[in-house]
Write a structure and sequence with these properties.
Length: about 375
């Protein structure tokens, strides 16, 4: 099997990535939230310049796909008019912060997010280097890729934890900047970045010389939230993170604020109920909530097969609790970690593995989509 191409950088609004269906323009809205006016602007831009859908990523970003090169400047102007594009690519890169969306104290979140952003902006870090701001009583972003995690200990203290370490440093808003500088400095000085790439978790393996005081554990992670009411608002999840632009517009009419989440959905604080809208998975038991699929052949030049139609057709065949990842190649963009079942496209068909990441050695190699769909229980009887 040919190795998937590892690009080592993420697309942004100013640095879009060319894909099979046109440019992918990724937005990192400030503080991971959209006002209703911004949400309407994004929806209108997706219709005018893109595919008509807005893609919600697993890093709590937004993407407009299918943009023609000739339209990129006009799209940027449209987005910049609504405060959604930074003129400086470094500031755009530094917004790689996923924020747990269920907070009530916006002032505290804003202040801590600004400190994290400034620390990431000030250092020569790889574009994929990011952080989570996850300071509810129990972390909810443990499954979200990040290099630095700001969490809360069971006793209420804030904890800055490097990804891959069980413990972190107790911090306050006042001490956070200095400890971030120390930790990022340590990462750079000990060779955490090579050829412009580097992740904290990988770098920590076998290292015991972290700066002192890294000894407070965060509270145990909470269960992943289900769609519907959460706290004082509503969580709306869409299959594969694809939200029709009309649905985003409709949500903007209902809620003054839309917070992006890393669960391929959005959270609307203060919203009492979710109306039925195209694309939104309304039932907590919908099997599509347990299915991941990347763009596949419809939009990715590296894809060896179409993925999402197969994933959608296989969802009803999953046993209760089973999760499925259908990947167009071994890179596994839609779900970088292990999944209960993973189908990886190869030139000969799909390789099936269990409790594994895309590209893992298969239990059953080269399965055809037709064979999978013809079997009532392709992954074992429920
Ligand atoms: S995993 Fe999917 S989206 Fe990612 S490179 Fe492979 S085919 Fe493309």
């Amino acid at each position: 099997m040919s190795e998937p191409e590892i690009r080592g950088w993420c697309p942004g609004a100013l640095t879009p990535m060319a894909s099979a269906d046109g440019l992918v323009v990724r937005l990192r809205p400030p503080l991971g939230r959209l006002s209703s006016a911004q949400a309407r602007a994004v929806a209108a831009a997706a219709v005018r310049f893109g595919s008509g859908e807005v893609e919600l990523t697993s890093r709590a970003n937004l993407q407009i796909r299918g943009v023609a090169e000739a339209d990129h400047a006009a799209l940027l102007a449209e987005l910049a008019a609504h405060g959604l594009v930074d003129p400086d690519p470094e500031t755009e890169r530094a917004r790689a912060i996923a924020i747990a969306p269920f907070y009530r104290e916006a002032a505290e979140i804003t202040s801590l997010a600004n400190i994290l952003t400034e620390a990431l902006r000030a250092a020569p870090l790889p574009s994929k280097f990011g952080a989570t701001l996850d300071i509810g009583s129990a972390p909810v972003l443990a499954g979200t890729a990040a290099d630095l995690r700001l969490e809360r200990a069971a006793d209420g203290r804030l904890v800055l934890r490097p990804d891959g370490s069980a413990t972190g440093w107790p911090v306050t808003a006042e001490t956070l900047p200095a400890i971030l500088t120390k930790l990022i400095g340590w990462f750079l000085e000990t060779g955490g970045v090579r050829n412009g790439r580097g992740r904290m978790r990988k770098h920590l393996i076998g290292k015991h010389d972290l700066p002192g005081g890294c000894n407070v554990a965060p509270a145990l992670p909470a269960a992943l939230p289900k769609p519907g009411p959460v706290g004082d608002g509503q969580l709306a999840i869409v299959a594969f993170g694809l939200m029709p632009a009309q649905t985003l517009s409709a949500l903007a009419d209902l809620s003054a604020e839309i917070r992006l989440t890393p669960w391929r959905g959005v959270f609307m604080p203060g919203l009492r109920a979710l109306p039925a809208l195209s694309g939104i998975l309304a039932y907590p038991e919908d099997p599509l909530l347990r299915v991941h699929a990347c763009t596949g052949r419809l939009g990715c030049p590296q894809a060896l097969a179409e993925t999402r139609a197969l994933a959608r057709a296989l969802a009803p065949k999953l046993a209760a609790g089973q999760s499925l990842h259908v990947s167009g190649c071994a890179k596994g963009c839609a779900h970088p970690g292990p999944c209960g079942l993973v189908l990886t496209a190869t030139p000969k068909g799909f390789d099936l593995a269990r409790d594994a990441s895309a590209g893992a050695p298969p239990l059953r190699p080269a399965l055809s989509p037709a064979a999978l769909l013809a079997t009532p229980y392709p992954f074992g009887a429920p």
